[in-house]
Amino acid sequence: MKLLKLITMASFMVLLTAGLSACSDNKAENAGEKVDEMIQDAGNAVEDACEDVKEGMKAEDPDC
């Protein structure tokens, strides 16, 4: 009887842990996507600023 109770409780804990980790993965994935988007936007802003500076200096190659 004790063994059955132990196995039941262990199974319940595994299912609960799996359920909670599945919920947090979705939030982590969304946060990761937002971070990726922010990094890409920052990179684009730096490239645009570089191109503006090169245009102002009348550089031959305006690409950065």
TrEMBL record:
Keywords: Signal. Residues 1-22 form the signal peptide. This is YtxH domain-containing protein. It comes from Shewanella ulleungensis. The keyword Signal applies.
